[in-house]
Amino acid sequence: MSFATTESIEEIKARNKELIQEVLTVYPDKTAKRRAKHLNVHEAGKADCGVKSNLKSIPGVMTIRGCAYAGSKGVVWGPIKDMIHISHGPVGCGQYSWGSRRNYYAGTTGIDTFVTLQFTSDFQEKDIVFGGDKKLVKLIDELQELFPLNNGITIQSECPIGLIGDDIEAVSKAKSKEYGGKTIVPVRCEGFRGVSQSLGHHIANDAVRDWVFDRLTPEKSSRFEPTPYDVAIIGDYNIGGDAWSSRILLEEMGLRVIAQWSGDGSLAELEATPKAKLNILHCYRSMNYISRHMEEKFGIPWCEYNFFGPTKIAESLRRIAGYFDDRIKEGAERVIAKYQPLVDAVVAKYRPRLEGKTVMLFVGGLRPRHVIGAYEDLGMEVVGTGYEFGHNDDYQRTAQHYVKDGTLIYDDVNGYEFERFVEKMQPDLVGSGIKEKYVFQKMGVPFRQMHSWDYSGPYHGYDGFPIFARDMDMAINSPVWRKTKAPWKAAAEPRLMAAE
Amino acid sequence: MTQNAEHVLDHVELFRGPEYQQMLANKKKMFENAQDPAEVERIREWSKTPEYREKNFAREALTINPAKACQPLGAVFASVGFEGTLPFVHGSQGCVAYYRSHLSRHFKEPSSCVSSSMTEDAAVFGGLNNMTDGLANSYNMYKPKMIAVSTTCMAEVIGDDLNAFIKTSKEKGSVPQHFDVPFAHTPAFVGSHITGYDNALKGILEHFWDGKAGTAPKLERAPNEKINFIGGFDGYTVGNTREIKRIFDLMDVQYTILADNSDVFDTPTDGEFRMYDGGTTLEDAANAVHAKATISAQQWCTEKTLAFIAGHGQEVLAFNHPVGVSATDELLMALSRISGKEIPEALARERGRLVDAMADSSAHIHGKKFAIYGDPDLCYGLTAFLLELGAEPVHVLSTNGNKAWHDKMQALFASSPFGQNCHAYPGRDLWHMRSLLFTEPVDFLIGNTHGKYLERDTGTPLIRIGFPIFDRHHHHRSPVWGYQGGMNVLVKILDKIFDEIDRKTSVAGTDYSFDIIR
Asked: Do A159 and B92 touch (CB under 8 A)?
């Protein structure tokens, strides 16, 4: 059991502060000074978590972050299923991100939907030297010939595109004209732009604004009759089916979901979204930009929600219903009541097995805060959390609505710091990504990937909560963790080889 | 509502139920502007035709589902094969996140690597400061014995000079003057991950043998009895390297495995995270110059490295992912010839057991048609083994194979009566393979995890051999090289063949061909 449950809050804070000082000693002075600003112990009542964020990662520290391409192709655009997303540049980026995010969708892959294909211009040296625009022109023709049912194309720029001076915008415009106004979207998400995935999200959002919304025609935007109950799900990537287990609840309460951004989404859904009465925003970090734009341009209000765990789900359903009439408000109550027996059964089964267990998180997007409620519904406690690419507004939301006094906060944590923190705090569970998973499991610490749901899911909605509970239980209470020590060897504390 | 706490349904079952199916159908009908189902069906059928194949093979600019990755992945893979070595990739940081994820998803192991995290300002001014700060931070935090530098395409496009940058960084005190920082330029727009492996390994050997970038005297070769062995970029490195060591030990040959990453990709879960484990010692890497000969298990992973080693006076010898009887025979006989040691009876017995197994099962493989794709050496090795088994490797495709590979493959086909109707496809991708499988069907497909899309589309059963394997666990722990490795490959192929017969004959209301003895 971690010290978090056995010591007073003041003791915890002192220990955590000491821990921060301890990890900083490894760095050269300049680096220590910079990293110190990203680490803190949360003080209850503060407006934010007291850390700097969205700053450049420091060279050589083993940051966990990715790049703008990952934010655009990997997160925002990639799941739009009826468009073809070209990884424009050398082969690697598209290869490493091929099918790894589990953005589920329905469709005939390779014929009318394309998410799990890897389309690339596979740049060679001559493309770098002479430019890739001509290749791109030809590539689009080949796409049109071999995939005639694609509804649109995006060009996801990899690093070289912005460095060699290619004009992908001109190519996009020309080819769009040639193909009768076809939606072709150039995205300037070169990996060296910005400090993390985050700028890629922003660039991708802006590309929707400039190349989809600004080119709407009456025909594209009026495919159905609006109703007063039309909403769009924004910022749900349908990982393991999350958007589906969310959509079903919204429909059950009487709303009509006209678009999913972007998991299992289609170009038509993006185009229809300006007709929504309310945009509901799950991943604030990656899609607040387009939500704000739609508010300004089309007058569509937006509200954040959280579909992890029954407490936050009920709170969110009521908040969303608050934008509508009594019919929807009653619908929300009906949905909450319908699922209460399921929630009670899940809590009865799993809470006794998980009560008092501590968790440390390090994830991207919304999850470093959003999943805290789900853990608390199971009697668990989050003792440390941080964002891979959060901004200050994420830390404000975290401080004001989620974390407890004394929680250790680590922004853009690196391999060394994270290992040290976990080693010292000895949580019962770590939730982070694939790069972290095996490090902690080697140390004997139960782990769940909280980007991909460790190949499980969905975790959103009432149907997702039992899966979440089951998975956390199987991680923490797996008998394998009692086998990590050979019986003939004395028990030793986990240690970090690299630091010695 | 189908979900319940007692029997929790996850994505595998949850969405197949009527509530969700109805919801998805409504979504499609109302909001997706979906294509007419008849049109989808028409195009789906058209995509199977020779006409489509012709258009597909006429592609010049577009690559779809390639079976290759980029250079730095190979550089990282080679670098972690040296004792206490931290790979440091100079350029954008997202690339490193990708390599680490990719390797971890295959091996189910940690993968440690750092980036110099270059951003827009470095694109303008160059990445010298990133290198200087990065080396200092890595050195202090992770206490490596060596930092092996490679590059992303960003650093290559702007033309950063690694040699000069590392020298300057040392002058500025990032790492001690005599700390080993070998380097290799690994542009992603040239070659593939196997090229990166080659460049990185050559860079490391060059560093130790040729005077550490002008900071030490060059080594004078004093030939000894040792043999160097290089595995190449190999998803089975854990099992294969250990098998090779066992064979060397059985033959009583002194050896050095260069870039031995078999331990770092197979560390125990015992409470300790080993960021570095095993690997070729730096001393051994330097002393490898004195070896009698160097054997590479993969020709196309080591072209530059072997030329470099040959230039230092050693005999060099390359194999092509040696799978099966003859390939192993040749490897052992080469070892015997070079070392002067006899091949022990124990290995002859192993050989006999593999031949025995092949004879036992031959009837089930003989004449079966296969398609294979993967790295050029793996394709060659598997093809040779299938020909030994009397199978027909009809389509052999390698995205990163070149003209020389094509010619060598065709010569291999020509050497066997079972290779007469077989073709090698260099530079093609898995969408080409899709057309091949539709227009000239085969019985089985051999390839990596991405082959499951081909299996779904074309109905060709997939035997997973290659890299990456993400959706099956632990196969990398078993060798595919040597007689025992051949046995593993044989069993894997046979299992799929028998499973396929069972699948086809497991028909309700019938009881024929669903045999319990085969």
From this structure: yes
